[in-house]
Amino acid sequence: MAEGWRVLVHGGVALTTDPGPAAAFLRASTPGAYTTTRTLDGASSLLLWERHMARLSESLSLLHQASPHLYPHLREGIDVKKLVLPSIAESLAKSIELRRAEEEINLTVLLCGSEKEQAQDSSGCEVYVHASNYRAVNRDEILPGARVAVMGPGRELARAKYSLWASTRQVLENVKPSNINEIILSNDGDSLLEGTLTNFFVVKVRDSKTWNEENHQKAAESDDHSRFQLTDYEVLTAPLSAGVLPGVMRNLVIEVCIEAGILVRESSPSWSSHLTWREAFLTNGLRILQPVTSIQMPASGFKPWTQGLDPKLFTETEWQSFNLEVCGRVTRHIHKLVMDRVCQLSIPLKTFTYK
């Protein structure tokens, strides 16, 4: 397999040092607001750039309010999109030279506070853009299913995308079972919040009293679309008030579901009602949408959302597993709606690379 490549740009200037993978770069950097996105369709466009910039600006504002020491010289009212544009253009220009035909470009933008008092017209922010290669499936394909486990408590200041989380989540990554692709956070072991890298959605039967397992199985196996009705299902994801990141893809999923007449509720999926779940999926700026095939929950009395994260306890704990439909019809339908909208809203790469 061909080796990966990486580019790091600081303040519009490409650096010669290898920054390491994006997660390692974030852990090693001064903490700040960040966002991650990627190119689409053979690096021809940049995925939901305007929305990522809006969320980056919001994260910067939230962090400055909560922890002013992070940005001691931040100038009020800065245009984040204009601020990062030179570094984006340079990182894309370098990346296009390095990428292979089958690769997309993964971009992570970090805004951290300047340690020195700068000129009066400066932003008070240091801009870094980390770029690397990313292997994505074709637009019409959907990623293989993920296996998830409920393991840790929710994040503090979850509404801001804060790079310090890259270090905090590593504790959970170090102790997760080897067969697990993503960790789901919960503060009580019942209300499920989000993943460490993703937002989490559940598709459930709307009325379990009138829609039994036999009917559901017939609908899943039948080619007769009259047996399958989107109105029989609802989509759940934790509300922002519960302490989850306002993910760019999370918001897009909610939008397209509402427009398509799919009932979507911002209500934390409850493990106590997991037998009514039929499908689940994860979203973020890189994966876009990934089905979930199974969810594991500690079954031995160990409560990782309230206790210390001792690797030995995780090694010895027993798990109960709940299997879901492998990319069921609702998930596939939402995936198509999301991809159609993503393609409409993504920005041509030439917008950033032509000087």
From TrEMBL:
Pfam families the UniProt entry points to: Aminotran_4 (PF01063)
InterPro entries: Aminotrans_IV (IPR001544), Aminotransferase-like (IPR036038), BCAT-like_C (IPR043132)
Name of protein: Aminotransferase class IV
Protein source organism: Marchantia polymorpha (Common liverwort)
Gene Ontology molecular functions: catalytic activity
